[in-house]
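User: Can you help me understand a structure? I only have the sequence.
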Amino acid sequence: MQKITASELHLLTQKAYAQAKKTAALYRFSVSFFAFTALFTLYLFAETNQYLAAPIKITAISTILLLSVLLFLLFPSAKIKKKKSLSLTHFLEVSGQLDLQTFTHFYRDVASKSELPELKYLLDLSLETGVSITGDLKESAERQLESIVSEKDAPSRIKALSDTNPIQKLLNRIYLGFAAVAALWLIPFLYGNHAFQRSLEFWVGFEKPNPFSYAVSPSTLLVEQGHNQVFQIQFKGSEPEKIIFEFKTEIEHDYRSFSLLKDSANYVTELIQLTQSGSFRFKMDEYYSKVYPIEVQTLPRFDSLLVQITPPSYTALPPFVQSYPSSSIEFPEGSTLQLHGFVNKPLREIEIHSTLIDSLFMNNKDDLIWISSIISKKEDTLSFSLIDTYGLKNSNPYPLQLNPFVDNPPTVLLLQPAPVTSISTETRIELLYESADDYGLSASYIEWKV
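Assistant: Let's start by predicting it. Here is the structure, written out as tokens:
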């Protein structure tokens, strides 16, 4: 048998001590991580079956993390009395070994369990722990103890004791338990309900997949304010026992419920007047359809429509303004008409329709003001198409009847002499006449011949 020295035995025991501390620290972490895994598995199966609300999921995850951390921090110092249960007794034996305070405590415990009291005496002498002898007597005692521990094969006993450490045994069981629990995580994947992903996104609440196949009409809705609408749903295959229509406006927090009527294969609502944008959905037993938006818009309109009329310059008439509604607008022919439209909302375009010419478009001066100019010489009727950014069109065409009046030629009335007059040679004739015009005369002259 190879003889082992006190220093070698000291080093060997220190290695065993370091390994024991490492195992104890790993055991401490493993216990807390196994607790986390087990609790998370319960949470995972709860989410798989129940589709937990976000606040519940946040609370559950926070509690699991808190308990795991507390277990990691407090477990080594926990003091529990022994019970008759074998597994609990084993657990308590292990927990008692977690508190490896000093190397002295460790090697004395190893010496006792490996039935090597000489190991304790030898290391006590080497480390001078509680020993008062010195000199030759100490050296002699060390040599004698070295021989004894070598004969009893102390290294093998220490190694065997380390290999059979109850901490390591229980740690191996924890590893097996962790593998078994982790294997349970595969069950949600096999059913394909994405429970694991939902569990990780604990800040989001998910709804159960709707088992019913259905079609909703209308699925998209853009209507004018005050429109009356019927909503309907049709099922393919199985139908729920209870169906409710739910609606809310954009300023409401909760949905309002409406009953439905069975119409052949469809379930329909009564007429619902829509005055504000909002959303709707259908409740089918405990399931909900997706939320469908409702866009309610006011129809485009003129708040004011003005026509500024500028007569031709020769008329010497000042410009004047007329506004809609006017059944007829009269003005001198050849006048320039400038249209000013003040609208209630931003528009995409305003088209002017004419009975005489092709359609033309007004120009956008700013978001709510549109202008256009035309020269009118004949009677005409104008109408307007206002198109907003949603494609909605005005209901009132705003008809304008244009009645330009004709500029009549001047008139002349000869007052004297009479139309047939006999005169002598070199007689002076006085002419007297009256002339008139719609807008007055700038000059007059006489053409005559003999």
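Now, to help you interpret it: Residues 77-100 have pLDDT under 50 and may be disordered. The chain has three domains: 6-200, 213-297, 302-405. Let me know which part you'd like to focus on.
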